[in-house]
Write a structure and sequence with these properties.
12 helices, single chain, about 300 residues, mainly alpha
Length: about 300
């Protein structure tokens, strides 16, 4: 995989008028939603957040005092205190349920709209690499979301690799038996064993995620269904996991360095947020063409 070509072409979005148009719309949606939030409900949300954090600290102190007690008693304490924490916070801010509900719904809708335009930018990146894409509309967008959710689930359970699938089932069984027998010493041992195996299984999930990472592009290129795209995406990446991993690692390091550098800019919250939104828009174009470049090279090496 030629990473230099992928990186160089990741700036080509600036020369595509349609990609620039979609990026401007994406940025405006982000900007308007932030301004509405900042000048309306941000103060109330921050007050609720501070109260919850203070109560969590209080609950944590209570847990520390119980440090020598059995785990089951500590879990009971958390189960009793946590609902009280939520109720007292809601009582302190009667309007909090309405505000949080509106914020959640609004944020969810904004994510969906921005996601739609981010896919349109990605399609332009794929077209740049001479990849003909299938017609894209709201229906295909919903299917794409379902595909990505399923991709995460299938990666978690190792659906396409039966050896690791049975390992996953075994770990779940250990957790269940451990919880059921928690009051005895064997339960704690089983839970610790399950936790130990889960750490190593995490690497399998990462491997599965990389194997399925190209499925959205397969789906956008073709008119195939969700499950066929998942299967084709899995087959497409066979023998290319290390190349894809390195490509993802490169863009991950770039994002970490640049975003951290922006985070160190000593300006107030409002200005810093605007700067970060501008960076996010630029990164959206860069990322779309970068990932399209990865898919283009993986696709050529069938």
């Amino acid at each position: 995989m030629d990473y230099s070509i992928i990186l160089n072409n990741s700036f080509k979005w600036k020369k595509n008028k349609e990609a620039m148009k979609y990026l401007k719309i994406w940025f405006l949606i982000n900007l308007i939603s932030f301004l509405v939030y900042f000048f309306t409900i941000s103060d109330t949300i921050n007050k609720i957040y501070v109260q919850i954090i203070m109560k969590i600290y209080g609950m944590s102190y209570g847990i520390l005092l119980m440090g020598s007690r059995p785990l089951i008693e500590i879990l009971k304490f958390i189960a009793e205190v946590l609902p009280q924490l939520i109720i007292t916070t809601l009582n302190q801010f009667p309007e909090s349920i309405t505000i949080i509900s509106i914020t959640f719904v609004g944020y969810f809708m904004i994510l969906l709209i921005q996601g739609f335009f981010s896919v349109l930018i990605l399609l332009k990146g794929m077209n740049f690499y001479k990849i003909k894409t299938a017609p894209f509309n709201a229906t295909k967008y919903v299917k794409l979301i379902i595909l990505q959710i399923l991709s995460g689930i299938l990666a978690l359970i190792s659906y396409y690799d039966k050896r690791f699938f049975f390992v996953f089932i075994g770990i779940i069984a250990l957790y269940l038996i451990g919880i059921i027998t928690l009051i005895s010493g064997i339960g704690i041992i089983l839970l610790l064993l399950a936790l130990f195996l889960s750490f190593f299984y995490l690497f399998i999930v990462i491997y599965n995620s990389i194997r399925l990472s190209m499925t959205p592009y397969v789906f956008l290129e073709t008119n195939k269904g969700i499950f066929q795209s998942l299967r084709d995406g899995w087959n497409l990446t066979q023998g290319k996991v290390i190349d894809i991993f390195i490509a993802l690692l490169i863009i991950g390091v770039i994002f970490f360095v640049v975003s951290r550098s922006i985070g160190y800019i000593g300006i107030n919250y409002f200005v810093s947020s605007l700067i970060y939104m501008l960076f996010s828009a630029i990164w959206m174009g860069f990322g779309a063409y970068y990932y399209a470049g990865i898919y283009s090279q993986v696709r050529k090496r069938k």
